[in-house]
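Researcher: Final request for today, and then I'll write up notes for the group meeting. The sequence and the SMILES for magnesium ion follow.
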Amino acid sequence: MSIDRLQSHYGFTRMPFGRDIPPQALHPHPGHREAIARIQWCVSQHQTGVLTGEVGAGKTVAIRAALAGLEPSRHQMVYIPDPTITMRGIYTRIVTALGGSPAFYSGVLASQTASLLAGELDERSRLPVIVIDEAHLLEVKELEALRMLTSADMDTGSHFALLLVGQPTLRRRLKLAVLSALDQRISTRFQINGMGPKDTAEYIHSHLSYAGRTDPLFSEDAITTIHDGARGYPRAINNLAISALIASFATGKAIVDQSAAQSAITENSD
Ligand SMILES: Nc1ncnc2c1ncn2[C@@H]1O[C@H](COP(=O)(O)OP(=O)(O)OP(=O)(O)O)[C@@H](O)[C@H]1O
Ligand SMILES: [Mg+2]
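Model: Predicted protein-magnesium ion complex:
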């Protein structure tokens, strides 16, 4: 099967349900909108916030969309996609983003990070915005180190925003007794849940229209089947929708019906 033939069969100008959607083309379901509002509030207040959600709930796209809305000359983003780079790696990223050269000794590096973070806003009028994605992978000692950064900052009033983004286990981890000091500093927490059935339908339509199809392509019962199979989670919806498109292309149908959706579910559950 070729993607080109599938695309022309359905009259797509590009493949739907892909990963690289510009922020303005994202489907603004309520969970997505609220996540963005909370992230932006957290940034404007120089606070620490936590955004959680199951795998594929739309955390990373929400962060991207929220950060895309910030004035670049007044913010210094430090986006850390994978915290398994260790605390040294995290400090190094921050120091480098703020124009420093990372100190060799870990103890020095930690205080260098804290002082660069504290100075950026006063000296260059730019607010550092540190985003740690997949933060559920952080170990307790790394969360402790982040707490130290925020408390060093607190002494003089907060000079940066910190966003921890990850799977729901992150919330539970932060409740550990050893992390209560960090937990208390978190001013906003939000969980992106799966979408409701109506939003799943709108979500599918918005991906299709981004791909150049505005007329109905999925039958209503196909959408219901996909919604239930994906529990309203965007990435799972994408996977099922693509499989259903392929299944229906293979049988030469013009509309993606319930049987195509069902075969997508069977295929994805193997
Ligand atoms: N609001 C949205 N509008 C359009 N597409 C979306 C939206 N939210 C999520 N998606 C789609 O779902 C995919 C998964 O979203 P994302 O990568 O943000 O999930 P995640 O919560 O960060 O998952 P993980 O836990 O695996 O990191 C994206 O690649 C995108 O295609
Ligand atoms: Mg993600």
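Model: The first helix runs from residue 3 to 10. The chain has two domains: 3-16+195-268, 30-192.
Researcher: Thanks, that's everything.
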